[in-house]
């Protein structure tokens, strides 16, 4: 009886180990829905790239946790993807800053125009 239980537990463990990478995309879905209306394609691509890099980092962490990666490979891969993600995030921040500055300049112009109109009255 004990031998049967052990064999069943080992079989279940092996099945989970083999199938988990296949089904993890369904269990851990971190992709963010991107609003396609009125957004610059370059900005959408940056967001998509950031999401992909963050998913890669999570996959690396998972593989390390499942002992599929050694310490050296884990540290190298994780650092490589973290640097890429940091670069993309910096590009996103610069894009957002530039975009917000343009909006501020337009609003500032409208405010100045309104003040001039009020002065004339």
Global Rg: 25 Å
How many DSSP E strands?
0
Structural class call reads mainly alpha
Overall geometry: elongated
Low-confidence spans:
30-37
Order of helices and strands: HHH
Number of domains: 1
Tally of separate helices: 3
Most strands sheet: none
Helical proportion, percent range: over 70%
What is the end-to-end distance?
Answer: 97 Å
Mean pLDDT: 78
Proportion of beta-strand residues: under 5%
Description:
- With 121 residues, the protein is mainly α.
- The chain has one domain.
- The chain contains three helices and no strands.
- Helix 2 packs antiparallel against helix 3 (71-120).
- The chain is elongated.
- It starts with a helix and ends with a helix.
Give a quick set of tags describing it.
mainly alpha, about 0% strand, about 120 residues, 3 helices, single chain
List the helices and strands and how they pair.
Elements: H1 2-27, H2 41-65, H3 71-120
Helix pairs in contact: 2-3
Summarize, please.
The protein has helices spanning 2-27, 41-65, 71-120. It is mainly α. It is elongated and about 95 Å long.
């Amino acid at each position: 009886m004990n031998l049967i239980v052990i064999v069943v537990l080992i079989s279940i463990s092996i099945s989970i180990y083999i199938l988990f990478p296949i089904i993890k995309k369904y269990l851990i879905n971190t992709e963010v829905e991107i609003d396609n209306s009125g957004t610059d394609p370059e900005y959408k691509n940056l967001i998509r790239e950031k999401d992909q890099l963050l998913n890669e980092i999570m996959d690396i962490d998972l593989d390390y946790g499942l002992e599929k990666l050694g310490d050296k490979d884990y540290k190298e891969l994780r650092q490589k993807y973290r640097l890429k993600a940091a670069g993309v995030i910096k590009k996103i921040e610069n894009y957002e800053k530039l975009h917000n500055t343009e909006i501020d300049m337009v609003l500032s112009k409208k405010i100045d125009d309104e003040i001039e109109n009020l002065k004339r009255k």
